[in-house]
Amino acid sequence: MGMVYLANDTSGRRVALKVMRPELATEVNFQRRFQKEAEAARRVARFCTAPVLDAGVDNGQAYLVTEYVEGPDLAAVVEAQGPMTGANLEALAVGVATALVAIHQADVVHRDLKPSNILLSPLGPRVIDFGIAQLADTLGTQSVIGTPTYMSPEHATGERVTAASDVFAWAGVIAYAGTGSPPFGVGGAAELLYRIVHNTPRLDGLDDRLLPLVERALDKDPTRRPTAQQVLDRLLGREKVAIETATEVVSDIWDPVEGPATSLAADALRMRRQRQRWVAAAAVLAAVAVVAVLLAVLRSGGVLDQTTDGDPLAQRVVSRNGYNLHVRIDSLRRAGKTVTVKWSVRYEPTDPAGIWEPGNVFGQSSNGPFQYSTDGVVLIDTVNGVRHATANQNGCLCSPLYDKRWKKGETAPFYNSFTDVQTTAVKADIDIPSLGLFDGLPIETE
């Protein structure tokens, strides 16, 4: 969105000055949304937040001024010192929940709550950048705003984002702070969003006193999650706790993080780079192992099959010039009103060398045969006669396999999620552009 500067106001007070990209300020739609969101952010009460002090457009530059918070961000602290425990973890949970109550009372939704947007000041945690993520809506990229690791299921599937999404993110942040790992792991955006929508969060090692509330806040259904106020009430064991009272509790039990912010950030960066070196080394070893497996498989006359275990629901072969694509529908499962189809494509070239060279295999992407865009896949509810478009923007589960030369028999898995499919639907047709229509498939229930 732009740059952030450390500045002084006219009284000499240090502030954070956020200057938006110049090309944005010239857009009329951006200016209108900017003024609206900035004014809403200025109404947020100053409890466990870095409040917005000023906002406007000056000589074509849109800017926001917020209080400067002296302290490292939560991500840097956890990376440098490990998971939080005891009173500080509880104070973090209360402080962030308090900030969300204040933000939501001003009719603002944060939309991008994550460890790097939580600063650990000497007096307790402070949430920053609330409401600012919404400004990117003017760029026409609403579906991708936010950090995948802490997105809610409804955010991941392109549905309306509400205060319940912030509560989901709160739970993800507390799980990360208490265990050192995000509840849905790490990885590429497509894999993360799929896990968030379909998988159970991993909360091993989280403090037993926080576990039940975090589990409730991570419910896939936003209507079943507690509100930020209810989270705060549960944490403090009272009803309708005032945010002033909660702030005092945080100040009383908070133990300031040791070490200056710059030192902690440097430690976190060193650890991150060390992990990256280990990951790179592991990737080399893994690549050697994969090559060995491929050689063994090919020498034995077999093929490498990465598809889902079990019999496919349907399959067919699509012949093109110089190769065959073996298409499988691996599963079609329902979770509430969301139905997900997993499908895969195996590449079988007729060239004796059996190696695919860069080209336009699917006719949809110039990046390779298995980077096919899945946006056009359609589910047809055969009972109610309704067509459903896919909800996921990137439906490839094979991102680690990008930019490679595909060998004979290798398979790429894909998925597509469809929302609001009536529970009366027991069968469906799946229409995959250029690969054909698979009809009469039974919908299983998880």
From TrEMBL:
Keyword Lyase applies: no
SUPFAM superfamilies: Protein kinase-like (PK-like)
Protein name: Protein kinase domain-containing protein
Entries under InterPro entries matching the protein: Kinase-like_dom_sf, Prot_kinase_dom, Ser/Thr_kinase_AS
Transmembrane segments: 278-298
Claim: Repeat is one of the keywords in the record: no
Single Gene Ontology MF annotation: protein serine/threonine kinase activity
Pfam families xref list: Pkinase (PF00069)
Record keywords, A-Z: ATP-binding, Kinase, Membrane, Nucleotide-binding, Transferase, Transmembrane, Transmembrane helix
Domain Protein kinase: 1-241
Entries under SMART domains matching the protein: S_TKc
